[in-house]
Design brief:
single chain, alpha/beta, Aspartate Aminotransferase, domain 1, five-stranded antiparallel beta sheet, globular, binds pyridoxal-5'-phosphate
């Protein structure tokens, strides 16, 4: 097929996620390597979002491809109840990466079903039904994960599941209260959450689910004392702390897992994306030893045909080994520091940049109409004039590929990016921000 044929056939037959179907104009990708991909006309694009913040190792990783091929030659599939070397190996590797309280892994196909199973296990283990999650969150699009999700992508599922309660995020930039310090902010959010848990009936709350650092809803990095404060609430009331590490896991924030930035041990960790970088879909949840022991004698009412798919697990083993071999955390921290400081320069230079937030290679630029009032460039949940689409178009004209959400532009490149590559790409962002200041405010 030619690039044009692929595009027209896709548009005619393939439904695209989170979109009106009319007017879609996908790039047909012919080849891809490292942080770049090419269309059928030979134009090179830079992947500055790691696709959907999952392609941490970039395109064309030979170690992962070889591991998949080897697994194909052995067998592609045996059911979850059989022993498969790649499945057993990856489960052990993940437990070895986790804090010492963690015990076992339940594998899923992706992130949404990781969260589905995480909350099911928390409910079975505690015998309680309520689940807390935050407004500015995305946890997946299936029914349970979609109800955990707090942002507008949940609306299509409503009225939602009874007992799914939302609480406010530690989103200091948009908080009307002016705090004396980050610590004071952390204390405030934790105290409000404690109050809300009590009002909801603390004995009925099974789990608090959080993206450790909020991803798609704006790289919201909590104050240092926030997660330990939530941990204490969980301990005080017997609630399971579930960290959704689907985006933040596997090096994205400069630590192997996002929660390591806050010195807490979760009860359940959901993961997907970076475990295989999409070379084969895979997700799962890691549960504490205590929860694992509970299911020694109690029926685990969870199951998937493809739980721990051998191909996915083979990709996962190679991928996790690659992170270590490539010293990926060192690169994330080194290049991440450059990213953060360039973004801070943009915040000082441009009227349209209200805030920038970055940790590791996980970053967002929050666009505003007015820096003083912080009025967002587009209203929450709406963009009637398609402004963010136009901004993406300006970046795309420069072959800088990423995505936006609300009034934010994300820069989350593959973790293998070099400083030189990053600086080259940020020149394009600089140009586009100058245009926004001139034409969009
Ligand atoms: C934090 C988080 N959790 C869950 C999901 C859902 O993962 P999946 O799309 O693999 O189902 C995503 C997807 O972007 C995510 O960012």
């Amino acid at each position: 097929m030619t690039g044009e044929e692929i595009k027209s056939t896709s548009v005619q037959y393939n439904m695209q996620s989170w979109s009106k179907q009319k007017g879609i104009n996908p790039i047909s990708v012919e080849k891809a390597e490292g942080i770049y991909f090419w269309d059928y006309e030979g134009t090179r694009y830079s992947d500055m979002s790691s696709q959907l913040v999952n392609l941490n190792v970039g395109f064309g990783n030979k170690d992962i491809a070889d591991a998949i091929k080897k697994q194909v030659d052995q067998y592609c599939f045996v059911g979850p109840s059989y022993g498969a070397e790649s499945r057993a190996t990856l489960a052990k590797m993940l437990i070895d990466l986790m804090p010492d309280n963690m015990g076992k892994v339940f594998f899923t196909n992706a992130g949404a079903d990781a969260n589905e199973n995480a909350i099911k296990m928390a409910r079975m283990y505690t015998g309680r039904n309520k689940v807390f999650s935050r407004y500015r969150s995305y946890h997946g699009s299936s029914f349970g994960a979609g109800n955990l999700t707090g942002e507008p992508r949940r609306y299509a599922l409503e009225p939602g599941i009874p007992g799914f309660v939302k609480f406010f995020d530690p989103y200091i930039y948009r908080e009307p209260i002016k705090f004396e310090s980050e610590e004071a902010a952390g204390d405030y959010y934790v105290a409000k959450l404690r109050e809300q848990i009590i009002y909801e009936g603390s004995d009925s709350v099974a789990a608090i689910v959080m993206e450790t650092i909020t991803g798609s809803n704006g790289i919201i990095i909590p104050p240092k004392n926030y997660m330990p404060g939530v941990r204490k609430i969980c301990d005080d009331f017997g609630i399971m702390m579930i960290c959704d590490e689907v985006m933040t896991g596997f090096g994205r924030t400069g630590k192997m897992f996002g929660f390591e930035n806050f010195d807490v041990k979760p009860d359940i960790v959901s993961f997907a994306k970076g475990v295989t970088c999409g070379y084969v879909p895979l997700g799962g949840c890691v549960i504490s030893k205590k929860i694992a022991e509970y299911f020694d004698d109690n029926f685990l009412s969870c199951g998937l045909t493809y739980s721990g798919h051998p191909l996915g697990c083979a990709a996962g083993v190679a991928c996790v080994n690659f992170y270590e071999k490539a010293n990926i955390l060192e690169n994330v921290n080194k290049v991440g520091a450059v990213l953060k400081s360039r973004l801070e320069e943009f915040r000082d230079k441009y009227a349209c940049v209200g805030d920038v937030r970055a940790i590791g290679l996980f970053s967002a630029i929050e666009l505003v109409k007015d820096k003083t009032t912080k009025e967002a460039l587009v209203p929450y949940g709406k963009d009637p004039e398609g402004i963010m689409g136009k901004i993406l178009g300006l970046l795309k004209q420069r072959q800088f590929m990423t995505y936006t959400h609300e009034n934010m532009v994300f820069i989350c490149p593959p973790l293998i990016i070099t400083e030189e590559q990053l600086l080259e790409e940020l020149v394009k962002v600089d140009e586009v921000l100058a245009i926004i200041d001139k034409e969009f405010l």
